[in-house]
């Protein structure tokens, strides 16, 4: 059987094709994904052979005439004899219209050359089978473990971490934030596990051929970027709660740590309620799960509807943890849930404006914690701490603008630093104080409503705030140039 081994592509092996001449680090703009149907079967029972395999079906809109389809794939094995491309609608149905494939390992591109030109306005369904080992590097779709103290044995789980550019390690996709689409996830696994994803469970049924395995399908998601897709298989316990509006809220952890989830389980619904009132926009999903992962590279990750945390940032014990640890948990939970609006509902077009995600989440998290725990004086202390951090960071030659050009994929991770978080937060705070409460809230609500399920740039935010200032009569509304100067140069605040 002829297969395309993308692992070997890292050694420089590829298949010839006309699309292989494209060598820019960003995806071509000829196509746009509309929806994904991702079906993944995971093997977690044998520690010597952790792996997964599946199929992704992508519905694609053609924006410009093209002879090839370029998307992302990394460390995946794709059987190119099983790839199909079918036109949706129209008079002619094209099946198996792939003439050759190629890989560009520098940019993680997988390129499919087509038997005929795909014309603007047409829609196609691309089906790609894939398989891979579960990652052990805490990125993509990876395995984690913990020791069950009752049974005195190691238990394995699987979980995803896709930000900033690791969804391509789990399934072939258009792995850039500007390519929002809906996702229908189906997970196959041993019945002793629980399957979680961004959306609620739609159905669980027995696997058709593997004993003791099941398929769990989840409701189709709202349009979102690939880096926000998430799923996990685990044998964790959970603490449920429900918001007044009916949103289900659950907090998950390994069984011998679930007693340390009380604070996070109580806090989370309060945080969501605060943001609904602050932004004037109801939380759009029917549920939120937050899960403490034993092995996790970041402090937390705001996956829409399935927020993942390092255990150290979510678990809190009144008996053993410090007050500082409790405050850290509050700040991080508030930060990640703020992203459900800033970052998830509205997402930056490209990583240049990462600060729109992180600066906003950092600032409004301080407002939220200040409201829930006023005795902590979080807003005042965070503001002072941020300024000290900014002055130190901006004094270095290695500093950079808040809104920085990203010209290669390797630069994305470098932007997750104090400039995007703390300095971005300080700029938002300055705008809040400058515009006043009414104009600030009106502008944020307008911005979120206008770009719901879409992508935005910082100038879109300036426009919404300026219009709100005019509308509320604050008279402080012509600051686009000064705001841009603060975000696009080093040292300004």
TrEMBL record:
Region annotation (Disordered) ranges: 472-493
Reported cofactor(s): Zn(2+)
Gene: CG11951-RA
Active site per database record: 336 (proton acceptor)
Origin species: Drosophila melanogaster (Fruit fly)
GO biological process, one term: proteolysis
Membrane-protein topology: Lipid-anchor; GPI-anchor; Single-pass membrane protein
Protein's name according to its UniProt entry: MIP13918p
GO molecular function: metallopeptidase activity; zinc ion binding
Keywords associated with the record: Glycoprotein, GPI-anchor, Hydrolase, Lipoprotein, Membrane, Metal-binding, Metalloprotease, Protease, Signal, Transmembrane, Transmembrane helix, Zinc
Site features described as Transition state stabilizer, chain residue numbers: 421
Record text on cofactor binding: Binds 1 zinc ion per subunit.
Coiled-coil segments: none
Main location as per UniProt: membrane
Sequence positions that bind Zn(2+): 335, 339, 358
Signal peptide (from-to): 1-16
GO CC annotations, alphabetized: plasma membrane; side of membrane
Domain Aminopeptidase N-like N-terminal: 33-228
Recorded family membership: Belongs to the peptidase M1 family.
Annotated compartments: Cell membrane; Membrane
